[in-house]
Specification:
Elements (H helix, E strand, L loop, with lengths): L6 E3 L1 E7 L6 E7 L1 E3 L17 E3 L1 E3 L3 H6 L3 H5 L22
Antiparallel strand pairs: 1-6, 2-3, 4-5
């Protein structure tokens, strides 16, 4: 974030108990959306490949996202984060030994 404020990414998780062993396992996914044409996220994939972005949840919306049980309301979070609030720079080039 340009202002270095904390942020989180939207995700989904579930716990599932194996019927045979009783072992509890957890799975999760991070939600992504198309980012073609986004001034920042457009640089994170090779040319001619679909651009993807994680769904960024601002700190002020953490509780609303975490407490959301309405799929239609949850879809309202699936937006690209404003580029003017982000900053990115190329990774440093590795030195060859």
């Amino acid at each position: 974030m340009r202002d270095q404020a904390p942020f989180a990414v939207a995700g989904l998780w579930r716990a599932k108990e194996d019927k045979n062993s009783g072992t509890l396992t957890h799975s999760f996914t991070q939600l992504t959306i198309n980012a073609d044409g986004h001034p920042v996220m457009d640089h994170f994939h090779r040319p001619n490949q679909e651009k993807r972005s994680l769904v960024i949840v601002p700190e002020a919306d953490y509780d609303d996202w975490l407490d959301c049980r309405d799929p239609e309301l949850a879809r309202a979070y699936l937006n690209l984060y404003p580029a003017k609030l982000m900053v990115a720079e190329p990774a440093p080039k590795l030195m060859k030994a």
